[in-house]
Specification:
By secondary structure, the protein is an alpha+beta fold. The protein has 3 helices and 7 strands, in the order H-E-H-H-E-E-E-E-E-E.
């Protein structure tokens, strides 16, 4: 008589550790991406080291945790997710996690870097009360031949003081 090992705890543990999801069945194509290849740390922007100056839950740690959250959904999802209380302690329009302005803001402490293409759409991700990631996306209208990834946010500036789009 042979022994049946199919229900053995070690075998079950091993089998449950093997991934059961395949790329073709996943939602990876819908997940947003962040690209830092156009990053510019010139003032008034900051560099990553500037956000890592406190112990524990530094701004850099908060940023990485937010990026983890933001990459679970497409960029279009974050344009409709409201955040904050709005103007004057809850009265007024609440902002979205992702705001796309299209043009580079006229009222900005930042300058359009020469290495960033002119025809992109500028926007920002809100990280917390005053902290923003400013950058751009590629509009669908420029993606006629599907040569670009329109689900990528290209980070250009770390904006610790809400100076990218000043109201």
């Amino acid at each position: 008589m042979t022994k049946d090992f199919s229900k053995a705890p070690k075998q079950q543990s091993f089998l449950s550790s093997i991934p059961q999801v395949f790329l073709r069945d996943s939602d990876i194509i819908n997940r947003s991406k962040f690209n830092f290849s156009y990053f510019d740390s010139n003032p008034p922007g900051q560099d990553f080291v500037d956000w890592n100056t406190t112990e524990g839950n530094s701004k850099l740690v908060k940023l990485v945790n937010k990026l983890k959250e933001f990459t679970r959904e497409p960029l279009s999802y974050w344009e409709y997710q409201k955040i904050g209380k709005g103007k004057r302690g809850g009265k007024g329009k609440r902002q979205s996690c992702l705001e796309i302005y299209k043009a580079f803001p006229k009222k900005s402490a930042f300058k359009h870097p020469p290495h960033v293409p002119e025809d992109v759409w500028w926007g920002r991700f809100r990280i917390d009360n005053d902290t923003r990631l400013a950058g751009f996306v590629i509009p669908d209208s420029l993606n006629q031949n599907n040569e670009y990834d329109c689900n990528t946010f290209y980070v250009v500036f770390l904006d610790d003081s809400h100076l990218f789009y000043m109201t």
